[in-house]
Write a structure and sequence with these properties.
The chain is α/β, with parallel strands linked by helices. The chain folds into two domains: about 240 residues, Rossmann fold (3-Layer(aba) Sandwich), CATH 3.40.50.300; about 80 residues, Trna Endonuclease, Chain: A, domain 1. The chain contains 13 helices and eleven strands. A five-stranded parallel sheet has the order 3-7-6-4-5, with helices on both faces. α4 links the parallel β1 and β2. α6 crosses α7, α9 packs parallel to α10 and α11 packs across α13. The longest helix is centred in the last third of the chain and has 17 residues. The N terminus is likely disordered.
C-alpha cells in the first residue's frame, strides 16, 4: 500500500529547495513553457505531440498555449472513428466547503464502471481541491469494486491516481476523469489563483492519451469569471470548448481553412486519378489527404522547385506519418499541373 494519500512523495516546494539551483524555472508547469523561456521568441520550434491519440484532446492547448505550433497526427485506428474522446457528464452538484458531493459520487461511479468492465486502460482523476480528492478517496475505500481499489493501492507506474490539479505534472493515463468541482457560487478559484494558474490547466487537460470524462455541475456560461483570475477564465473557456465538441459545433478537420490555388488544383488531380478524399488534415500550413481508408494512404503534393522543402519538411512529414502507421503518397506539383 502506498503511504502517500495522493501518490506524491515530494511536494514541488520540497524538490525546489533541495535540488534546484534556478527555482524560478520550476514555476513552469510545462516543458514547452520552459523551452519558451530558453529559446528566443522569434525562433520557431516544430514540436511533435505524441501523448494523445486524438486531435481534440490536444487542440485546445495547441491553440491557447503554443500558437498552433504543435504537430499532431491521429493514429489510424482513431482517425477513422467519429466517436468523441471527450465525454461530458452533467450532475446536479453544489460547491460547499471546497467539495462537490454529487461530482465525487459520480466520479467514483464512472471509475467502478470502467474497472468492472476490465478495460485494459490506465485511469487518473483530476479535481480542483485537495478536499475533493480526499472525498473521492474515501468513497474508494468503501467501494465493493476490487479492481478499482487494487489499482489505487498498487505500486505499479500506471496505478489509479486521485489528485488535485496542482499535483499532476508528469502524470499521464489512457483515461482522465476531470472533475470541475466548482459551482457557480465560487468567489475564489483557489487552485487557479497566482501567476501560473493557466499553466496548471494546460498540464491538467493534456494528461489523457485516449479519453477525457468531464464531470461538471453547470454549463460554461453559468460559471462565474473572477476578475484578475485568468485561470478561471481559461477553465470556463475549456468547458465551453468541450460543450461545443459534444454538440458537433467544433470540427477537427479545419474545414473552414482557406484552400490555396495549388490545393484546389491538387483536389482536381486526385479526383481525375480516381482518388477519393476521405479526410483532410492541416498541419502547420500544409494540407494532407487521406485518399485510401483501407490502406491508410496519405497523399500530398511537393514543390520540386524547393529542394530544401523536399529534403527537410517532406522528409519530416514522411517520417511522422510512417511512425503513425500510414502509407505516404507524395506527388510532384509539376505532374499535378500537367494533368489538371
Amino acid at each position: 500500500m502506498r503511504p502517500e494519500i495522493h501518490g506524491s512523495r515530494f511536494s514541488s516546494n520540497q524538490w525546489k529547495e533541495k535540488n534546484c539551483r534556478y527555482p524560478e524555472l520550476i514555476e513552469n508547469e510545462s516543458i514547452l513553457d520552459l523551452f519558451s523561456q530558453i529559446f528566443p521568441k522569434n525562433q520557431t520550434m516544430l514540436t511533435i505531440h505524441y501523448r494523445s491519440e486524438k486531435k481534440e484532446l490536444i487542440d485546445f492547448s495547441n491553440k491557447n498555449f503554443y500558437d498552433n505550433q504543435l504537430v499532431f497526427i491521429e493514429k489510424p485506428q482513431f482517425i477513422k472513428t467519429l466517436s468523441s474522446s471527450i465525454e461530458i457528464i452533467d450532475v446536479n452538484g453544489k460547491w460547499s466547503n471546497q467539495t462537490n458531493e454529487e461530482e465525487a459520487l459520480k466520479i467514483v461511479a464512472i471509475l467502478e464502471d470502467i474497472y468492472e468492465k476490465n478495460i485494459n486502460s490506465s485511469v487518473g482523476v483530476i479535481v480542483f481541491s485537495k478536499k475533493q480528492a480526499r472525498r473521492i478517496i474515501k468513497e474508494i475505500y468503501t467501494s465493493k469494486c476490487e479492481n478499482m481499489k487494487n489499482s489505487f493501492f498498487s505500486n505499479e507506474p500506471n496505478h489509479l491516481f486521485i489528485k488535485p490539479i496542482s499535483e499532476v505534472q508528469g502524470e499521464e493515463r489512457d483515461i482522465i476523469i476531470f472533475g470541475i468541482t466548482y459551482g457557480n457560487n465560487v468567489h475564489n478559484y483557489q487552485l487557479l489563483s497566482g501567476n501560473f494558474a493557466q499553466n496548471k490547466i494546460n498540464v491538467a487537460i493534456t494528461r489523457a492519451k485516449k479519453k477525457i470524462y468531464l464531470v461538471k455541475s453547470y454549463k460554461s456560461n453559468e460559471y462565474r469569471k473572477i476578475p484578475g483570475q485568468k485561470g478561471s477564465e481559461l477553465l470556463i473557456e475549456y468547458i465551453e470548448y468541450c460543450e461545443k465538441l459534444a454538440h458537433n459545433r467544433y470540427s477537427n478537420l479545419d474545414i473552414n481553412q482557406k484552400v490555396l490555388k495549388d490545393e484546389e488544383i491538387f483536389h482536381q488531380y486526385l479526383l481525375k486519378n480516381g482518388k477519393k478524399i476521405y479526410l483532410t488534415l492541416k498541419i502547420k500550413d500544409k494540407f494532407f489527404y487521406l485518399t485510401n481508408s483501407e490502406k491508410l494512404e496519405i497523399s500530398y503534393f511537393v514543390n520540386e522547385k524547393s529542394l530544401l522543402d523536399i529534403k527537410n519538411n517532406v522528409w519530416f512529414f514522411n517520417k511522422l506519418f510512417k511512425e503513425r502507421g500510414y502509407q505516404i503518397n507524395p506527388i510532384l506539383l509539376t505532374d499535378v499541373y500537367k494533368i489538371a
